[in-house]
Specification:
The protein contains 10 helices and 12 strands. The chain is an alpha/beta fold and about 290 residues long. It is globular, with a radius of gyration of 19 Å. The protein binds 2'-monophosphoadenosine-5'-diphosphate. 2'-monophosphoadenosine-5'-diphosphate binds near residues 131, 136, 156 and 199.
Length: about 290
Amino acid sequence: MVISGKTEVFAVIGDPIEHTLSPAMHNAAFEHLKLDFVFLAFRVTPDELENAVRGIRALGIRGLNVTMPHKNSVTEFLDEADASVRFLRAANTILNQRGRLRGFNTDGIGAITALKNNGVSLAGQKVLLLGAGGAAKAIAFSLAKEVDELCILNRDAVKARELASALESFGKKIVGKELSPKLVQQELQGSDVLINATSVGMTAYASESLVEPDWLTPELTVMEIVYNPVETRLIRIARGAGAKVINGLEMLLYQGVASFEIWTQCKAPVDVMREAVLKQISASEKH
Ligand code: ATR
């Protein structure tokens, strides 16, 4: 790839940012489609966020991914926000249209596309969603349009109930309750899809899972949003139970695919992007 005066710049901002997989994913796609674009990562501290957003306009950066801890606060600086950003009060994607910053949130659509492209049809299904944090909210907002029933279980029951009632207007059977082992087991019995959108399973809690092996059946689809490690305890036990398994990289990949398509209006080369992410992960595991 030759960078010239005509190369258009895209970036991800966050803090910390050094472990981001987005540059690998998007640069591979740009290269594959021979687009004269480059994707960089910038560490932006919270007190510099406003300046950074001004910089996007000043430097003509064409598109941005926004990650922790800026997804919420960046919405203050947008000129336009799509329905998901308005509902979630959080954006992970910005398109710069001649200085006008348009915000999107592709986390929910990323999860839905990961399910659909792995052969899961959601119409008429019941989903059990664990968690009611930022990621869970985004997933719930997208799921509410698709499924018949959604049960949200969260450690903090107030958040689960608030999320469920915020989704009432979709007219689906959506409930929010306090997460407990007994309720997870009980709710799993009538569910077609289980999604873990809590942090349980991340490296810090690597040996933990909110689910026990004998609660899972081969008819169930289990989706994990944790991708570090890729193989969480939940993924292992779900596979052992013969369930259909979708790991956290798929959601990461498809939120990137959705962002890519917003920025470029080109169909994203999904397999190229997946391969780039896997390559980056195995390279970082060696270090
Ligand atoms: P993210 O943006 O990744 O969703 P978040 O908004 O901090 O991160 O949400 C983290 C989610 O994981 C929350 O649903 C949180 O539950 P609480 O709202 O009760 O805090 C959940 N979570 C984190 N640690 C957990 C644990 N040990 N057991 C159960 N749920 C946990």
